[in-house]
Amino acid sequence: MKTYRRKEISPTENSPVITGAKKPDWFTEHLTRIPFVQKMFFVEHLKTMVHAGLSLTESLDVLSREIENVKFRHIIGEIKDGIEKGNSLSEVFAKFPKVFPPIYVKMIAAGEASGRLEGALGEISTQMRKTHELTSSIRGAMTYPIVIVVAMLGIAIMMMTVVLPKLMVIFSEYDATLPLATRILIKITEAMSSPLNLFLIFGGLGLAIFLFVYSLRKIPKFKYLVHKINLHFPILGPIIKQINLARFSLTLSSLLESTIPIIDAVEITSGTVSNMVYREALARSAEKLKTGTPLSEILSTNHFIFPPMVTEMIMVGERTGEIQNLLKELADFYNKEVDKTMKNFATIIEPIIIILLGLAVAGMAVAVIMPMYSLVQNF
Fold first, then answer.
1. Sign of the Cα pseudo-torsion (148, 150, 151, 156, in order)
2. What pTM value is reported for the model?
């Protein structure tokens, strides 16, 4: 009697093959972005699978089927191909700097060198989660004032283009000298009522915004000047300092925890902070560290951006050999401060918005009521 053996099917046999995967189209490759949440998902699950004993190629194969983003899925396929060719994970990650910044590559390389890749992935996952929480709190706090400002602009444009032109007809026929506020309001209304003027105003505004953004991206000195001015604003300045100090302490502690030399760690950290003043100060600090000067002493010369609490805690860490732990405490402190400030940001900014709105309404009311009052008196 003829017997048949059952064919054993591997878990990946019916799964999409990543090696040689079709390259995304031009739109997907150049104009779509990879959400930060999916990067977090990738690192966290890669760490879990490595901990469970799966090889990197098996882990990447599973993750490629779980990731929804087409562009990221193709990149994971290329990472898997690179691993199969004998490259290390850090070497393959380094080929995608827009997806995996140098800080992650260095941490992975340190983990591979010390034989603790799982630990390095865990540290990266922790840092990504804290960075995401920090960014989310900032975006959430900015939503309310942006919505209010946009609504105010929309109402102002509607008043200038629809309501006030009909009302200004009465005043234009008035022979007596109108108050200055009314004359200004009439001129603004006439300008806003013309389609050509509207086109020129919004075109000029759009051009100004474009030139400003272009200069920020292409002219380092202009960007440095703007960032330096931002630090001196009453409400915005302290918030920017807290955000950059939180990123500085979090990134530096993660890199030192990965046994990366402090000079390299400070140099990499300089590329992760958003403010150019902090970035250049840390880049100079990395150079001065080569002379043997302690980091706390170097940072203490920039007391405006690095408060005494930061430099003193770093100094204590340098003396006790626990600098990464004290930096973690600093990161937690500033993360909590930023979170608390962002939660109260609406309360802080609301009075300013109300005052500005009140001044605008009061000015418009004075410009409209004063001539009407004069007309009533004449009759």
1. positive
2. 0.69
